[in-house]
Amino acid sequence: TGHISAITVPHWFGYGSTSTAGMMAVTAGLLFVLAALFGPRHGILIVFIRRQFLAWKILAEDIIALMYRIEERDPDRKPDARYLREILFSRALPTGLLLRFLTNQGQITGTNGYYRLTETGRDQARQLVRSHRLWEHYLVEHAGMSAETIHRQAERLEHFTDRQLREKLNEDTIETDQDPHGSPIPPEEQTP
Fold first, then answer.
1. pTM to 2 decimal places
2. Which CATH code is given to the segment(s) 44-117?
3. Which tens digit of pLDDT belongs to each residue from 136-151?
């Protein structure tokens, strides 16, 4: 491609041919830039897109987990988008888009700008809150951390905890029913 480019590309700009070696270097450089940007595993653009999707997934999970905690304290309260944004320190656009996405997924319902969890959303939120509280208990009991410093670590870990790990955490924390702050740890399955 470098030799063909040396013959054809200069004519596009009103010049004669150019050095094949020089054009091969330019072509190799362009191919490197394309690989660096669009490489399927480590491309700059691909990594950025993956991180953005992960950030949106975490924010969506934070929204439903927050709504679950609100329902725990006051079952009749319906938060609006502004309240959720303020508590989660998120911007209006991603929060609004994710509220719409969660509504389309059937995890929340919205009426006049106020939102509630559906049964599906409540089930997923319960699992997130359960993961969070189990991690808090585990970090205090097994990692020797103080109850005041565990929230941020549990906040990160809850998004990557599946059912199998929750069961292991439950076993390792001697099947407790409260986190270190005294909040109840929700059951794995909701009983009717």
1. 0.82
2. 1.10.10.10
3. 999 998 888 988 889 8
